[in-house]
Write a structure and sequence with these properties.
It is a single chain. By secondary structure, the protein is an alpha+beta fold. The chain has 2 domains: 149 residues, Periplasmic binding protein-like II (D-Maltodextrin-Binding Protein, domain 2, 3-Layer(aba) Sandwich); 231 residues, Periplasmic binding protein-like II (D-Maltodextrin-Binding Protein, domain 2), CATH 3.40.190. The protein is 41% helix and 15% strand. It has 18 helices and 17 strands. The protein has a 5-stranded mixed beta sheet with strand order 2-1-3-15-6, sandwiched between helices. Strands 7, 8, 12, 13 and 14 form a 5-stranded mixed beta sheet that branches. A hairpin with a 2-residue loop joins strand 4 and strand 5. The radius of gyration is 24 Å and the shape is globular.
Amino acid sequence: MKKNMQKYLIGGVSVLTLGLLGACGSSNGEANNETGTTKVTWYQVGEEPKDFDEVMTKVNEKLKEEINVELDMRLIPDGDYQQKLGVMINSGEEYDICFVNGTDYVNYGNKGAFISLNDHLDKELKDYAAELNEGFIEGGAINGETYGLPVNNDIATTEYWTFNKDLVDQYQLDVENVEGVETLAPVLEKFAEKNTDTNITPIGMTRTSVCIPYDNIIGGGVPLAVAFEGDTQTVVNTYETPEMMTYLKAMHEFYKKGYILKDAATVTTDPFRIDSKNWFLGRNSSGYQPLAQKKLEALAGHGLILKPAGKAFKTTGFARVAMHAVSASSKHPEAALKLLNYVNTNQEVADLMVYGIEGKHYDRNEDGSITLTNSDDYYQGAWALVNTYLVSKTSPITEESKKLEEESKKFQNEAPMSPILGFSFDASDFRTEIASVQNIVSQYEVLLSSGTVDPEQYVPELLEKLEKAGLDKIQASAQEQYDEWRKSNK
């Protein structure tokens, strides 16, 4: 059913791309000064660190020397980014590269805001594209066209029930057979019987999302999805599924027994940090279990036990969580493509962009890892910026860690693809209905997922309101579009 990566690598050149590259001519024609260096403007989400200009000077020294490009990176805070990106695109502002993700990527890609990368994945972008999991290419395509270059990271993740190991050992609890939410009851009951510390909450979760084996089609609170396994051809309202009711009823029972905070649905600040010891059970999303456990334990500062709550799948959501697109308004698309390929394959530059200057913001250790020494003055999250597998490790590199990294890559490569990987729902005819559905779901979602209210009373009420808001119309269109997409992707 799935297209293979090769199909995207050898796709035809779009008219838009040909027009842009033809208009720009040679790289000399793109030059901004007598040296032939091309300045590329890159809009990126994030706060500007104190030493940003100093670090960018170092970055540009390397870029000018190696690829004859000068980077003009402009950071926009997360809270303002989406709105400002929309203004830039809708006004036709000239720029070269932007960070984009999720529904914005789909909406702007469909509008022609970005050039297609299909014909460049085996040319200007070939070095970086060769490192990407195939799921990124399939998941990032919109009707066969790839408009964004994903930040290389885990694409296959699952939810993990996370236990405080000290408490498991102290009370000699058996968590070996924990998987679905219904398997938690015996463990929680025994913990509640034995625990005498009132400062410890059995379930350290507040506004946590529901964990059921479905892949959402739209996201943003619209409860339409397709099952990962079983009937993978039908778009369902997840609030009508037995898995949803099982989860919500279990959480409500836990709430009634006092395992969950009474104000879990209304707290605005999560009181259960992973490095605190005021919780027995939590939940985290991550990739390969042994590696995830080591990373989480490093953050927690104490032992953890992770038990998968389900299977890991490559999903469209994770394929599009962080991407970089080349603008259709760019006067320098060739230089922009060259820059994206270079920063994602050159560790020295990637480390500069993420960690800053060696000797000032971090120190290099003998094993090749680094120790951050001044991240207050400079640090940018790799997850949204460059190849996360390329940047230097911040934990010691040992034979065990190397083995775990290799096993993790194998886990990512071998994870099955979601049946809707790469499917994009065209919501343009349902803006009003979607906004109404999102508003209604926001009134019920946290109350239900936190166990605060009885799902047998509140879910029917929610379903009635969703029907009046037009969810059935959205669902019918989603099913029709999904059927057509499946036919073209066999």
